[in-house]
Amino acid sequence: QVQLVESGGGLVQAGGSLRLSCAASGSIFSINTMGWYRQAPGKERELVAAISSGGSTYYADSVKGRFTVSRDNAKNTLYLQMISLKPEDTAMYYCAARPEALIYSDYERYDYWGQGTQVTVSS
């Protein structure tokens, strides 16, 4: 089993920055692709950014140029650097992981999930 624990969420003003972290533990050898999803009230869960173990990345159009996903394999940690935050970025952010290298946007493709960390951007 794999455990994912997110941290770094909070309240920030529009234009501000936050860095989310996701620490992985357990059977981490089974992890290949890791990603960040978000879900706002009344909306579907969407893939924000993802990165494979080989370094391939994916970004949703809405965050390109503002968010950067990275991972430190030595620390078993995934990061999401967010700048120029907007009120529409407000959501619960979830870390997710899957054993395969391919990046999928479908959340059902991910086997492991964290409990989420709230990001609130005030206008």
Describe this structure in words.
This protein is an all-beta fold. Helix content is 0%, strand content 51%. It has no helices and 11 strands. The protein has strands at residues 2-7, 10-13, 18-26, 33-39, 46-51, 57-59, 67-72, 77-82, 91-98, 112-113, 117-122. Strands 2, 4, 5, 6, 9, 10 and 11 form a 7-stranded mixed beta sheet that branches. Strands 1-3-8-7 form a 4-stranded antiparallel beta sheet, with no helix packed on it. It is globular. The model has no long low-confidence stretch (mean pLDDT 95).
Short note summarizing the structure:
This protein is 0% helix and 51% strand. The protein is mainly beta.
| Overall radius of gyration | 13 Å
Distance between the termini: 40 Å
- In DSSP terms (H or I, runs of 4 or more residues), the helix count works out at 0
Fraction of residues in β-strands? over 45%
Which term fits the overall shape?
A: globular
SSE ordering: EEEEEEEEEEE
Find the count of extended strands (DSSP E, 2+ residues): 11
Helical content band? under 10%
Largest sheet: 7 strands, mixed
Unreliably modeled segments:
none
